[in-house]
Amino acid sequence: MNILGLDPSTLNTGWGIISLGLADGMVYVDGGVIKPKRSMALNDRIHFIFKAVKSILKKYQIDHVASESGYVGFQNHKTSMSLQAARTACHLAVVESGHRWDEIKPSEAKRSATGSGSSSKDAVAEMVYITLGAPSELIGVSDDLTDALSVAIAHAGNLKEKRLEDLNFEP
């Protein structure tokens, strides 16, 4: 089962795919950062992100998609609005491709990777690297990618929990 994690932003949208197997746990498949040019108008960056996410969904056999949920603590409303626009571009690409959109709180993604919801980005990156079997492709990658992978890892954990709950269901 392949899970795509997304960390939306209008300048650096992180994406990461993990494979969740029965015996081998979680394995890194691919990932990167969608980087529209800073000089592009916001509407052009949003369209660029939309097309890139659609392309990723078309290229890989994705079973689940999870994104970092919106963060509303920004005092700069312009920043909040632009992040929401990036999330919407990702959301539309996912739904239009026939996938379900699930959200993971940033603190939940950190907690899933490190055990603490207030971990630093370096701690998250290190634990993502270890959790995914220390693939050399993840050495020195962008925080945007490791954040997206932490979202995918958290979603995998939620799926496992749900399966266990379903198995223990008593009518």
Commentary on this structure:
It contains five helices and five strands. The chain is an alpha/beta fold and 171 residues long. It is globular, with a radius of gyration of 16 Å. The model has no long low-confidence stretch (mean pLDDT 88). Helices cover 49% and strands 19% of the residues. Helix 1 (42-59) packs parallel to helix 2 (77-96). It has helices at residues 42-59, 77-96, 106-114, 121-131, 143-167, and strands at 2-7, 13-20, 26-34, 64-68, 101-104. Strand 4, helix 2 (77-96) and strand 5 (101-104) form a beta-alpha-beta unit. It has one domain (2-167): Ribonuclease H-like superfamily/Ribonuclease H (Nucleotidyltransferase, domain 5).
Indicate the topology.
Blueprint: E1 2-7, E2 13-20, E3 26-34, H1 42-59, E4 64-68, H2 77-96, E5 101-104, H3 106-114, H4 121-131, H5 143-167
Parallel strand pairs: 1-4, 4-5
Antiparallel strand pairs: 1-2, 2-3
Number of domains: 1
Radius of gyration: 16 Å
Q: For the terminal residues, how far apart are their CA atoms?
A: 28 Å
CATH topology: Nucleotidyltransferase, domain 5
Q: What's the mean pLDDT score?
A: 88
Approximately how much helix is present in the residues? 40-55%
Low-confidence stretches: none
Number of helices: 5
Oligomeric description of these chains:
single chain
Strand order of the largest sheet: 3-2-1-4-5
* CATH top-level class: Alpha Beta
Structural class by secondary-structure content: alpha/beta
Overall shape: globular
**Topology as a string of helices (H) and strands (E):** EEEHEHEHHH
CATH homologous superfamily, by name?
Answer: Ribonuclease H-like superfamily/Ribonuclease H
- Give a quick account of the main beta sheet: strands, pairing sense, barrel closure: 5 strands, mixed
Approximately what portion of the residues adopt beta-strand conformation?
A: 15-25%
- What's the CATH architecture? 2-Layer Sandwich
